[in-house]
# Entry
Amino acid sequence: MSIAFSSRSGKQGDGRLAAVFIAPAFLGFAVFLLWPTLLGVYLSFTRFNLLTPAEWVGLDNYVRMVNDPIFWESLRVTVVYVVLNIGVQTVSALAIAVLLQRLTRSPWLRGIVLTPYLMSNVVAGVVWLWILDTQLGIGNEIVMALGLDRIPFLTDETWAVPAIALINVWRHVGYTALLLFAGLQAIPDDMYEAAKVDGASEWRMFRRITLPLLRPVLAVVLIMTVIGSFQVFDTVAVTTAGGPANATNVLQFYIYGAAFGRFQFGYASAMSVALLVVLSAITFVQYRLTRAGQTDLG
# Structure
């Protein structure tokens, strides 16, 4: 009887201790994520400009959004950016991770790979704004040295989105590579050794061993990077400010302009809710298609 009582008391004590440790994180989640999200959903059904009380307008903001050509163009630009960013970043990060795992595991090299990620997006944007400047940037000096004409990377409608995508690839690829590298560490070395004994090439081992067993980690990384890519803002704000001719007016930048440029907080909230729904749907589909919660490791 006393043993059962002490066991019950111990469980209650563990529960209280767990609640104490969880409380700060839960408080931060409620104050900085849950409450703003609920408030944003409410404001999406109102007309609000900070100067007057919010006025309930029902679905008017959503009707306006559906009929807003700039919204759809911003969504299209965002999707183009996401495809470029995710495609180049994932392939590059996977290649770097495999090279780190198969050729060297030097902590110094990992630190060098991660260095760009330690820089803020604003600083990275300013640095690349100078590098890619059409007249004075060292990037165009290299282009000229190769015998080519100067390229208006950030001032031409054709080049602007790919340039911004590559800037963010440069900054995030090291972090993504280290996440994949961590996943590669879970793959037993004896699988590669057995494949080598059977005469398998590096490419065959990559296709038949690395990719299948890395799938859960790769799926989670893809979900994280897609969500982050849809939320691109600071790089655009620093380098192109949505130009030229709205060619880089991604959805987050358009939402920011509606809220803090034109004080249309209700309409901006409606677009934010739409983005939340789109990201939730994409995440759900990715999770189901990639079977992120399952592993092929025994």
